[in-house]
Design a protein that fits this description.
Elements (H helix, E strand, L loop, with lengths): L23 E5 L5 E5 L5 E2 L57 H12 E4 L2 E4 L25 E2 L6 E2 L1 H41 L13 H34 L5 H49 L3 H87 L3 H8 L48
Antiparallel strand pairs: 1-2, 2-3, 4-5, 6-7
Helix pairs in contact: 2-3, 2-4, 2-5, 3-5, 4-5
Length: 451
């Protein structure tokens, strides 16, 4: 919701074709009564001015601007508008003072009914005015939102929309730091895992060839060492390509820049609050002057005297001066609100740009994390491929021969002579028909279980 635009009611021209004296214009009150205003002398009267002779006019206070100022649009600055706050002198035919329902007072009432002031900034009520055009109608942008101050759910204070944007930036910076710490913990896990894999690859368990699968088992233990190297490289890349960039992104002057934005907008809001206070003070002063003028005018109707007329002239001058002061204060308020509006648009778009850059930066480095993770999986797969090939070539019969390599196995005979190595079944018998150095053992029936 952006600052509201308030416009003054345009004067209605005299329907009578007779010309008015120079400087005079006619207006119509809510009751349908016509009154006249002299733009030079600031005097107002219920009687039509004459071209031939000036008649004593019963003045009305000069119209003044409303404290409910208009906003400014970035594409074209709306001219500073005014809402009159005059108290018309009661005519003789009316039973109540017209000042209470004058066009200016009626417009002030309409402004109050359709506008709301939050922390010295004027906004339209929801549904009270046509929807304002967005600065960026084709896309969602900070510059079209975050205008209204909202009450803090935790307390009674109000939180400015710009403060919400600043807190979002600071929160994003904090989350970025915590993400970096998360990646750091992930790196520690990888390093510990690599250390344990490397240690396990050097374990003496199942170091003998008997009972294992030989080369396949040896390659499996070696693959643990290779996998440890892969995880160690993964942890190093995580540190340099993910953790460190997340931690150091906008580390130098980011908070200083945010403070500059904060102080600049805060100064404008302070100026706006000061201008608004001046408007309210001038408005009360004008109301007092108008009331004083009305009282003196009523006294003049009861009793005409030179002193009363002099008092009325003084009261009229003071009322006119108070109206001028109010107009000046409203002009300053409008200028300050326009300046604040323009700076809000510029600064909010800058904060939006910073937020987009931060999100894209995080997105880029989280994608780098997933890329490194996929690469690690591929390298891990390559470490077990040699093990798979060796396992495919394993033949259980070959492993059986490998276990008994170096020993002779044969079926035990029932009679005769044989070459056996069991000393308990051997006795030496030399014969002329035997070759020297050959041991012959004569056996009786011996079952294989005796061997």
């Amino acid at each position: 919701m952006k600052p509201a635009v308030v416009s003054s009611a345009a004067p209605r021209e005299e329907t009578d074709l007779r010309p008015l004296p120079p400087g005079w214009r006619s207006y119509t009150s809510p009751e349908g009564l016509r009154y006249y205003v002299n733009s030079c002398s600031k005097e107002t009267t219920w009687r039509r001015p004459s071209l031939s002779a000036e008649v004593p006019q019963r003045p009305l206070a000069r119209q003044s601007s409303s404290p409910y100022a208009n906003g400014c649009h970035s594409s074209s600055r709306t001219s500073l508008t005014e809402a009159a706050d005059v108290a018309l002198r009661r005519p003789t035919m009316s039973k109540r003072p017209p000042g209470s329902v004058s066009p200016a007072r009626r417009q002030i009432r309409e402004v109050k009914e359709t506008k709301i002031t939050i922390n010295c900034v004027t906004f339209p009520l929801p549904g009270g005015s046509p929807e304002q055009q967005l600065l960026k109608p084709n896309e969602w942008s900070y510059c079209d939102y975050f205008w209204t101050d909202k009450k803090d759910p935790q307390g009674t204070t109000s939180v400015a929309g710009f403060e919400v944007l600043l807190q979002k930036q600071l929160k994003g910076k904090q989350m970025q730091k915590e993400m970096s710490e998360f990646i750091h913990e992930r790196i520690k896990i990888e390093e510990e895992y690599a250390k344990n894999l490397s240690k396990l690859s050097l374990s003496p368990l199942a170091a003998q060839d008997e009972g294992t699968l030989g080369e396949a088992w040896t390659q499996l233990k070696k693959s643990l060492h290779d996998e440890a190297e892969v995880h160690l490289k993964f942890s190093n890349k995580l540190h340099s390509e993910v953790e460190k960039p997340l931690l150091t992104f906008r580390c130098d002057n980011f908070k200083k820049d945010l403070k500059k934005y904060d102080h600049h907008i805060a100064d404008l809001r302070k100026q706006l609050a000061s201008r608004y206070a001046s408007v309210e003070k001038s408005r009360r002063a004008l109301a007092d002057r108008q009331k004083d003028l009305e009282v003196k005018t009523q006294q003049l109707e009861i009793k005409i005297s030179n002193k009363t007329e002099e008092d009325i002239k003084k009261a009229r001058r003071k009322s006119t001066q108070a109206g001028d002061d109010l107009m000046r204060c409203v002009d300053l308020y409008n200028q300050t609100q326009c300046k604040w509006f323009e700076e809000m648009v510029t600064t909010s778009m800058e904060l939006e740009k910073l937020e987009v850059e931060r999100i894209e930066w995080i997105q880029q480095h989280l994608r780098q994390y997933t890329t490194l993770r996929h690469e690690t999986d591929m390298f891990n797969q390559s470490t077990v491929e040699p093990v798979d090939k060796l396992l495919q070539n394993v033949d259980p019969r070959q492993r059986q021969r490998a276990v008994g390599e170096g020993e002779q196995h044969r079926r035990c005979p029932t009679r005769g002579y044989g070459h056996i190595n069991h000393p308990e079944l051997q006795y030496f018998n030399t014969s002329d028909n035997t070759d020297p150095g050959t041991v012959h053992v004569q056996t009786t029936e011996v079952c294989s279980s005796s061997l």
